[in-house]
Amino acid sequence: MSRTDPGGPDPGAPEPTEAEPDGPLVRLLGLPMSLANVLATAWILLLMLLIVADVVGRDAFLSPIAGVPEMVKFSIVGIVFLQVAHTHRLGRMIRSDGLLALLARSRPRLAAAGDLFAQLAGAAMALVLASAVWPRALRAFERGEIEGIPGHFTLPVWPFLLIVVVGSGLLAVSFLVSAADAARRLRG
Predict the structure, then answer these.
(1) What phi and psi, each to the nearest 5 degrees, are found at residue 23?
(2) How many CB atoms lie within 10 A of CB 140?
(3) Per residue in 116-138, pLDDT tens?
(4) pLDDT interval class at 21 (50, 70, 90)
(5) What gap in Å lies between CA 80 and CA 66, rounded to an integer?
(6) Which of 7, 51, 145, 184 could disulfide-pair with 157, CB 3.0 to 4.6 Å?
(7) Are 155 and 148 in contact (CB under 8 A)?
(8) What is each CA distance from 107 to 74, 79, 111, 171, in whole angstroms?
(9) How does DSSP assign 39-75, residue by residue?
(10) ∠ at Cα 139 (154, 145), nearest 5°?
């Protein structure tokens, strides 16, 4: 698993080791995470254009674009869940690993055990979130749940809930790949 990108290494990320998993399976698992990240980045750009057009329409023509607040509200959730797995895969997720770094100097296997526990706990939480939101997404789809004001602007809710489920699932995969790396380090 590479913790660098074409833009260069993240100075705050842990240094990659030669033994980190970076085989074809890990790269294959990283592909949907990277694609989701690209989609989220494009979404951000389109959202910025939409907000600028709304402000210009509101101020210059006294005609705002209907539904922009609703689109922004749901977009934030969608963007976060599309990008979170990629962020974790690159080692750029916020976490307090000071204790692990300290332990790694003197007791690397204990640090690996702590990292393994943290990665498995992260995977479990991501899977709990996905399994909790999935029934809500199905229900929203079946009932045709919408956000907004009928006749003015409406937005279906289920696609955003589905993004939460998919993003959480991808995050769980990323946590499991990192857990496998920690288990490998634990074995020595």
Answers:
(1) -80, -175
(2) 20
(3) 999 999 999 999 999 999 999 99
(4) low
(5) 24
(6) 145
(7) yes
(8) 45, 39, 6, 28
(9) HHHHHHHHHHHHHHHHHHHHHHHS-PPTTHHHHHHHH
(10) 10
Distance CA 5, CA 11 (A): 12
Q: Per-residue pLDDT averaged across 56-69, rounded?
A: 94
Question: For 24-56, what is each residue's pLDDT tens digit?
Answer: 888 898 999 999 999 999 999 999 999 999 999
Residue 144, pLDDT > 60, answer yes
- Report if residue 3 sits inside a domain: no
User: 104 lies in a domain?
Assistant: yes
Total domains in the chain come to 1
Residue type at position 63: S
Own/partner contacts of 151-155, CB < 8 Å, gap of 24 or more, are: 152/66, 152/67, 153/66, 153/67, 153/70, 154/67, 155/67, 155/70, 155/71, 155/74
Residue 133 CB neighbour total at 10 angstroms? 21
- What is the pLDDT averaged over residues 81-103? 89
Q: Which residues contact 16 (CB under 8 A, 6 or more apart)?
A: 1, 2, 3, 4, 91
Q: Is residue 178 part of a domain?
A: yes
Distance CA 86, CA 171 (A): 8
CA-to-CA separations, 114 to 91, 111, 137, in angstroms, rounded: 16, 5, 34
The whole domain housing 80 covers: 22-187
Q: Is residue 1 part of a domain?
A: no
